[in-house]
Amino acid sequence: MPRLRRRRLCRGRTGLFGFVPLAAPGLYADGLSPWSLLCWRYLFALVIISAGIRLARLYLRAAMRQGTWQIALVGVSLGAIQTLCYFQSLRRLDTGIAVLLFYTFPAVTLGVESAILR
Prior knowledge:
This protein is 89% helix and 0% strand. The chain has 118 residues and is mainly α. The chain has one domain. It is flat and about 45 Å long.
């Protein structure tokens, strides 16, 4: 896959992920639950990832036989829990505060860990 094409796909994916906090309050007001939002998000991501795999002509079955399924299972399970917590926070907190906490938490965790484990 050409380098420029990969960049466009990454930018599109990032833009879609950044759209979630903007859309979530309206979707919650229309009656959508965080669980439903989680299911729709992963269904939409599955369609995009499947298309990317086909476009890149990757051999997924061979990779799964070599143990990729274990990494995918951990990523899906932990990713789903993390995303569900994020969607719950968007429901209860102001969107700006929820997004700030979500994106700064890894850096704060690393800073605290490095200060404690010196």
